[in-house]
Amino acid sequence: MDFLCYHRDRPGSLALREQLAEAHWSYMDGFAKELIARGPTLADDGETPTGSVHILDLPGPAAARAFAFDEPNHQAGAYRDVLLRRWRNTLGRTMWDFPGGRTGGNRYLVLGFGAGEGADLVAPPGRDGDLIAHGPLLSDDGATWLGTAVLLQAPDPEAARAVLTEDRYAAIDVHNWRFGGRPS
How far is CA 152 from each of CA 9, 51, 125, 173, rounded to the nearest angstrom? Predict the structure, then answer.
């Protein structure tokens, strides 16, 4: 089962995150085989972290909750909250398979929150070159559509937002994002 975990930073927690960097990397190393995508969301300056996205394949909701709440930054209070949802990998690949590579261009996390009949349940055709990850957000049992999450490369936030069918969502959030992983 795939899950999206988005930890959002507590204001003023950058120093704590920097202090815990090695603990975070070590924790993530333990999930290397399960990771589909990962990386920080960033403020408008493109440098200051505002959160941390992890999409991974885990045995079930209990394992996903353990992953989210045992993460060292979460345990230390660096995060203000966590969005944890079941997710379906409509592209069938990891971010490392993205044809656009790890760097270059503007990258975004787009989160659409909805209810009722699902929208954007499959990746839009002809977008393989800019979609990094795409899939619906689902209830723990996978039966109820709760929204859609997309990682993509786009010219600007407005173009990133346009990947979703806007009138089908109660809210759409767009965050600057970049490929994550242990620094080389």
Answer: 21, 17, 14, 13
Give the number of other Cβ atoms within 10 Å of residue 5's Cβ.
Answer: 23
On whether the CB atoms of residues 9 and 49 are closer than 8 A, the answer is: yes
Angle at 162 between CA 159 and CA 168, to 5 degrees: 160
DSSP codes of every residue in 76-119 = HT-EEEEEEEEE--SS-S-GGG-TT-SSSS-EEEEEEE--SS--
Per-residue pLDDT tens for 60-78? Answer: 999 999 999 999 999 999 9
pTM over 0.90: yes
Q: What is the pLDDT of residue 182?
A: 86
CA 54: distance to chain centroid?
5
Q: How far apart are CA 96 and CA 132, in angstroms?
A: 9
